Predict the structure.
Amino acid sequence: MMTPEEFRQQFSIFPDTAYCASCSQGALSYRVQSAIEAFLQGWSQEGAQWDRWMEAVERARSLFARLIHASPDDIAVVGSASEAAYQVISSLPDRGRGEVVSSRLEFPSIAQVWLNNASGSVHFADENGLEVRAEQYARCLSEKTGLVSVPLVSYKNGFRPPVQEIVDMAHQWDSPVVVDAYQGIGVVPVDVRALDCDFLVAGSLKYLLGTGGVAFLYVSPRWRERMRPRLTGWFGRTNPFAFNPELVDFHASARRFEAGTPAVMAATAAVSALELINELDAEAVVRHVQGLVNRLRDALEARKMRTLGGQAVGSWGPMLAIAVDDVMDFDRHLRSHGIVASPRGSAVRLSFHYYNAASDIARIERALDEWVNRPPTI
């Protein structure tokens, strides 16, 4: 298994830059860059390479399944997390009996799918959108609950809800659970067999170190054949290349949730990225990243700088969000020190992967010292 130092050497952006924006876009590895260049060269010289492209899609499916301890038959390759969420809520029997329980920690494109497609009310369990507890979900659950949604990690501030507790409580009401793992998978270990969630959504853009255009939907075998997708297309067929416009036969596997032609270049990139991720020891990754997050939290507290969520009870993922009055000015200040962050709303997010190092934290600390000691503006 790679050490953090060996992993860091897979990326050209280091050491000149402290890249701390994996919550927005993972850093580009040499492997992914080479895969995209090879794709473009093949396209340029040979045109359509359908066999190779389909092999890449299937390889990406298998690698993602391996990462979450699932079978490839449990995985649909889709275009985005929003598409995956729509496939869930629109395909549930009886539209999920109506009500959805979610939280304000959800990424907007997930929550907006629930709001636009739920046949009943959408209940947001939390109050402030910064942290949520299991008992807050419990108060919203009832015999009317048709779907429960929870993020693995919040995009806002890195807070990790008690996902396992929420899954267990929802199943007491026979309500299926969808987990949005997009904001943590690749750094936070996921085992869908142990978690026993019904659906899981993720994409290759962030901590999985690929690019936009490819996302994955895990569908538990206990739900798969009970669901008839409303959104479909030729890749949802038993044999897509039969080209029969008069036949809508859904694939027996999770492929039934696929629709149009997949983003084959993004899938090619995802293969190289997932191969790299699967070479890592998941527990070593999360320990390393948690150490960096803890050191950043200590640095912020020492300088009396506030994070969104503060000292909320609970665990934290690979990111912290620094609350400042002028987000863009603070982001420019960080960039002037060679630190790439991700400004969102009222905070600047700093996130870490296995490729980040203590030297990145040291660079951040120097930038923080200049920020808190800057002369007041007149």
